[in-house]
Amino acid sequence: QLQLVQSGGGLVQFGGSLTLSCAASGFSVTTYPMSWYRQTPGKERELVAFISGSGDRTNSPGSMKGRLTSSRDGAKNTVYLQMASLKPEGTAVYYCYAQTFGRWGQGTQVTVSS
């Protein structure tokens, strides 16, 4: 069964760091592209990071630019989103997405306190 299970969100202080995880089942994250999105109330989901099937990583421009690092672990079949130097505008629900299959993770809340 194809599934994405996220973990690692929570409350973090201004300037702090946080790593989100997205554990996949039913397919290999080292074969298929994966993305990370964020969503704030009243707004559409915004792409923030992308990993191609070959492992090339791309971060989208915007308020989170330079503070995000995406990675993957084939042995754990998991993708990660490392966030650093967080600011209050980093507060959002973050989702991982397997676009080949149109499958979303359940989302995880990140709240950055000022």
Characterize the structure shown.
This protein is mainly β. It is 0% helix and 52% strand. It is built from no helices and eleven strands. It has strands at residues 3-7, 10-13, 18-25, 34-39, 46-51, 57-59, 68-73, 78-83, 92-98, 103-104, 108-113.
Uncertain runs:
none
Mean pLDDT: 93
Number of helices: 0
* Main pleated sheet: 7 strands, mixed
Ends apart, CA distance between termini:
40 Å
Helix content: under 10%
Structural class determined from secondary elements:
mainly beta
Radius of gyration: 13 Å
How would the blueprint of this fold be written?
Blueprint: E1 3-7, E2 10-13, E3 18-25, E4 34-39, E5 46-51, E6 57-59, E7 68-73, E8 78-83, E9 92-98, E10 103-104, E11 108-113
Parallel strand pairs: 2-11
Antiparallel strand pairs: 1-3, 3-8, 4-5, 4-9, 5-6, 7-8, 9-10, 9-11
In short:
With 114 residues, the chain is mainly beta.
Question: Which properties best describe this structure?
Answer:
single chain; 114 residues; mainly beta; seven-stranded mixed β-sheet; four-stranded antiparallel β-sheet; 11 strands; 0% helix; 52% strand; globular
